[in-house]
Specification:
By secondary structure, the chain is of the alpha/beta class. It has five helices and five strands. It has one domain: 3-Layer(aba) Sandwich (Rossmann fold). Helix 4 links the parallel strand 3 and strand 4.
């Protein structure tokens, strides 16, 4: 089983970026957590601050069994990401570290949610682990 974990803009700054909102753990900590929980799964971890690079990553994920996607701010703006998720037909779980519904109104709308298998928001890094669990479950059934 192969899963792409794709993080969007500003998530390379995890650890120092608004720690009250996003916690003090880094992107490397996240990758270590996920690999430690699921040693049997082959992960590809990508982070980009550029929408086009994220699109390329999603297109390449056609060969994968699932995608865990934190599109960060592009969640709320990107029709292109939405179209890419719809195009690749690979089960994709939308994840947010923070509870976007408890924050500013502009974060309440997700353009990608309708084409994702599900959405996990507000559970911190645990949300990524749960997203992988969900992909595993859907593969098994
Ligand atoms: C985020 C929430 C987004 O609204 C924000 O733009 C981010 C991070 C989260 O993980 O909580 O950059 O996706």
């Amino acid at each position: 089983m192969r899963i792409l974990v794709l993080n969007g803009p500003n998530l390379n700054l995890l650890g120092t970026r608004e720690p009250d909102t996003y916690g003090s753990k880094t992107l490397t900590d996240l990758e270590t957590l996920i690999v430690g929980r699921f040693p049997e799964i082959e992960f590809r971890f990508e982070q980009s601050n550029h929408e086009g690079v994220m699109l390329d990553c999603l297109h390449a994920a056609r060969a994968y069994d699932g995608v865990v996607l934190n599109a960060a701010a592009y969640t709320h703006t990107s029709i292109a990401l939405r179209d890419a998720i719809a195009a690749i037909e690979v089960p994709t779980i939308e994840v947010h570290l923070s509870n976007v519904h408890a924050r500013e109104e502009f974060r309440h709308r997700s353009l990608i949610a309708p084409v994702c298998r599900g959405v996990i928001s507000g559970l911190g890094m645990t949300g990524y682990v749960l997203a992988v669990e969900a992909l595993l479950d859907s593969k098994a059934t």
